[in-house]
Every structure is written in C-alpha cells, then in structure tokens.
Write a structure and sequence with these properties.
Rossmann fold; 3-stranded parallel beta sheet; 7 helices; globular; binds 4-nitrophenyl phosphate
C-alpha cells in the first residue's frame, strides 16, 4: 500500500509511530476468537520474519464482548490459520480501560467494534488511537471492514485471513519505512 492511501486523520495517528522505539498494537473484534486473534497471529508472524524489529513491537488482541473469555480461538479459525503456518494460541479477553494507555494503536475489525471502542475510550487522546483495520487494506481488495466469519463457511475464514494478511503487511511496511 502506498503510504499516501491513508486518510489525513489516520496519517496524523500513524506518522509519530514511524520513528517510535516501541509500537504497541491492539487488534479488536467482537468475540476475540476469530478476527482479532488471527490479526494478532498474522502481525506477530510478519514481525518474526524481521528479527531486527522484534523488540520494537508489542502485539495483542481483545474483544468488545465477553462471551468467550478464557477460550482459545475458534477451532475453524485455528484450522485455516494453521494451513498458512500460523498457530493461534491467544486466550480470549475483553477490552479494558487500561488498553487505551497500554497501546498506541487500537484497531477494530468493523464499524460496530469501532463504535463500542469509541464509547469506552476514556479521553480524547484515547479516541485518536482508534484506526479501523480496513484503513490498512489495499484498495484492490475492496473491503471497508473485516467481515465477521462466525456464521460463515470456510470462505469466510479464508477471506478474513487474506484481508488481514494484506492489511498487516501494509501496516508493517508503513511503520518500518523511515518518515
Ligand atoms: P469475532 O467473531 O468477533 O471475529 O471473534 C465472533 C465470535 C463469536 C461471536 C460473534 C463473532 N459470538 O456471537 O459468539
């Protein structure tokens, strides 16, 4: 993704992070068992392929809902991720108020997660940290959100992984290119 593809508002959030020593990223979806733990795994795998970046990144995920707290990711997501060489072992947790101070970038998967995060954000500074995942997905993929695969078939899980792979690679490239 060309860096200018980001909107001015999103660039204002991302720009300072390009020269930061630490980049702390939290991916957020509803259940924290499908999309956000997959994003967490995809991002960690991209960073692991660049050993010079390893100490710079803190990556985690959480859910706006509380239905699956304590659980591993959905078995269907784990199967589809494993086919791509990713082992997803995140334990589901719910977003907390502390997340808005512990992370620099909070990335919801869809508009519903985003509006819930906006309700939870404790300050104007915290609100600024919210940038939707679709902002990083290349235009060619025609995605304005990462669709919930929970009630979908195999294609839904594959689509999520394709979108996350594209979006996470773009996010990584933007944040590892010198300003
Ligand atoms: P996720 O998917 O938000 O990508 O983790 C879902 C998981 C569980 C439910 C909904 C979406 N649920 O209703 O239990």
């Amino acid at each position: 993704m060309a860096y200018p593809d980001l909107s001015p508002r999103h660039r204002a959030v991302i720009d300072p992070l390009r020269s930061a020593d630490k980049i702390r990223v939290l991916f957020v979806c509803l259940g924290n068992i499908c999309r956000s733990p997959a994003a967490d795994g995809v991002m960690k795998s991209i960073v692991a392929d660049h050993p010079g970046q390893a100490s710079r990144w803190v990556i985690d995920s959480a859910g706006t809902g509380r239905y699956h707290i304590g659980q591993l990711p959905d078995h269907r997501m784990r199967v589809h991720a494993r086919r791509r060489g990713l082992e997803l072992d995140h334990i589901c947790r719910q977003v907390t108020a502390d997340d808005f101070t512990d992370f620099d970038l909070i990335i919801p998967m869809d508009a519903s997660n985003e509006s819930r995060l906006r309700e939870l954000a404790p300050s104007p500074e915290a609100l600024e940290k919210i940038v939707p995942m679709a902002a990083f997905v290349g235009k060619a993929m025609r995605a304005d959100h990462i669709p919930d695969p929970y009630y979908e078939g195999a294609e839904g899980f594959e689509l999520v992984l394709d979108l996350l792979d594209d979006g996470c690679r773009n996010l990584f490239n933007i944040l590892t290119t010198k300003p």
